[in-house]
């Protein structure tokens, strides 16, 4: 068994073309898991990622603030305690509302590939 205090996991800058602003950090933990990739993504106010898809399912668990999870068909506001299942291949984006920073835990199987669809 391994226990991690999330408050002690360092926040590392996560600057990639996937995000609409560089105001994003990532907290990775359990890197030694054989099967899962787990981490927390922290978005500044109004920051989101761009439309993308994953080759496998993705689970998001909101840990701070208010955010939006969107597909081509809908946009839903989410807040602390909400959990979202995004099926493999579903075009989507997620990020902070204009008035709140936002953090979510992401759970995926290792090897899950992400393809950015929006420039």
**What Rg, in angstroms, do the CA atoms define?**
14 Å
Counting DSSP E segments of at least 2 residues, the number of strands comes to: 10
CATH topology: Jelly Rolls
Cα separation of the termini: 41 Å
Number of helices, where a helix is a run of at least 4 consecutive DSSP H or I residues:
0
What's the helix-strand series?
A: EEEEEEEEEE
Percent range for β-strand residues: over 45%
- How much helicity do the residues have? under 10%
Shape-level CATH architecture: Sandwich
CATH class: Mainly Beta
The best one-word shape is globular
Features:
119 residues, single chain, mainly beta, Jelly Rolls, 8-stranded antiparallel β-sheet
Short summary:
With 119 residues, the protein is mainly beta.
What does this molecule look like?
By secondary structure, the chain is mainly beta. It has a single domain (6-116), classed as Jelly Rolls (Sandwich). Helix content is 0%, strand content 49%. The strands form 2 sheets. Strands 1, 2, 3, 5, 6, 7, 8 and 9 form an 8-stranded antiparallel beta sheet that branches.
Question: Which helices and strands, and how do they pair?
Answer:
Blueprint: E1 12-13, E2 24-29, E3 36-43, E4 52-54, E5 58-71, E6 75-79, E7 83-86, E8 92-96, E9 102-109, E10 114-116
Antiparallel strand pairs: 1-2, 2-3, 3-9, 4-10, 5-6, 5-7, 5-8, 5-9
């Amino acid at each position: 068994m391994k226990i991690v205090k999330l408050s002690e996991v360092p926040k590392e800058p996560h600057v990639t073309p996937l995000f609409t602003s560089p105001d994003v950090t990532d907290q990775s933990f359990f890197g030694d898991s054989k099967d899962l990739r787990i981490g927390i993504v922290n978005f500044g106010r109004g920051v989101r990622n761009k439309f993308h898809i994953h080759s496998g399912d993705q689970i998001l668990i909101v840990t701070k603030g208010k955010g939006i999870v969107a597909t081509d068909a809908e946009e839903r506001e989410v807040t602390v305690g909400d959990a979202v299942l995004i099926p493999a291949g579903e075009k989507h984006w997620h990020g902070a509302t204009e008035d709140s920073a936002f953090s979510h835990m992401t759970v995926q199987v290792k090897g899950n590939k992400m393809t950015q669809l929006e420039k």
